[in-house]
Amino acid sequence: MKKSVCFILGIFFICSIIGCCKTFKPVEKTTNPTLPKEAEKSNIKIEAIPNLQDDFIRGMDVSSVLVEEKSGVTYYNFNGEVQDVFMTLAEAGVNYIRLRFWNDPYDENGMGYGGGNNDLDTTIELGKRATKYGMKVCVDFHYSDFWADPKRQHSPKAWEGMNIEEKSKALYQFTKESLESLLKAGVDVSMVQIGNEINNGMSGETLFKNVASLLSSGSKAVREVSKKYHKEIKIAIHYTNIERKGSMSKYASQLEKFNIDYDIFAISYYPFWHGTMENMISVVKSLKEDFGKDVVIAETSYCYTSKDGDGAGNSIKGTTDLVKGYPASIQGQATIIRDVCAAANEAGALGVFYWEGTWIPVGKATANNAPIWEKHGSGWASSYASDYDPEDAGLYYGGCSWDNQALFDFEGYPLESLNTFKWLKYGTK
Question: Is 299 a catalytic residue?
Answer without folding.
Answer: yes
